[in-house]
Amino acid sequence: MSNQTIAQQRAKHALQVVCGAKEYKEKSFCEYKRDEQKKLNSYIANLGPMILMNGLGQAAAFYRSNNNKEHKEVYEALADWLSQPGRPYAGSKDLMNAITSSSAAEYRLAQMEALAYLDWLKKFGKAFLIREEDSAPETAEAIEEGDK
Description:
Peroxidase, domain 1, about 0% strand, single chain, about 65% helix, about 150 residues, mainly alpha, globular
């Protein structure tokens, strides 16, 4: 049992996804190229409203089915969070299967948890990833090149 609040646990997982603890994945969102980071930021920001308008199941299905790497990354981050111990779909290997086989009460709980988690993912995305309005160089190497 963790000594952290659920909000702290959400924040920790979201930060690992965005800025990269190797325990989550081999590559964090911060390690993606500039244009990929912009897409990730946009897709993270859009998923919450999509869930509110269409429901968790339809929004998750859209992100999973999209042939875009960044959509899939956001989907996988959400699926990983919802399958953590103590979360609505704890131990689930497949988010879509968990959604379609859960009770209405479990589904509503998962949807609320998804929105709370996405709030943290969005905050860290804004803080650490390149956004559409940013004009920063693409990589550290580009910064060094500009200094020469």
